[in-house]
Amino acid sequence: MKIAFIGGGNMAAALIAGLAGKLTPGGNIHVVDPNPASLEKLRQEYGVTVAGVAGEAVGAAEVLVLAVKPQVMHEVTQQLLPLLQAARAAGRSPLVLSIAAGIRAQDLSRWLGGYQAIVRTMPNTPALIGKGVTGMVASSGVSTAQREAADQILRAVGETVWLDDESKIDAVTAVSGSGPAYVFYFIEAMQQAAQELGLTAEQGKQLAMATFTGAAQLAVESADPVPVLREKVTSKGGTTYAALTSMEASGVKAAIIAAVKAAAARGKELGEQLGAAG
Ligand SMILES: NC(=O)C1=CN([C@@H]2O[C@H](COP(=O)(O)OP(=O)(O)OC[C@H]3O[C@@H](n4cnc5c(N)ncnc54)[C@H](OP(=O)(O)O)[C@@H]3O)[C@@H](O)[C@H]2O)C=CC1
Ligand SMILES: O=C(O)[C@@H]1CCC=N1
Question: What Pfam families has UniProt attached to this entry (predicted)?
Answer without folding.
Answer: F420_oxidored, P5CR_dimer
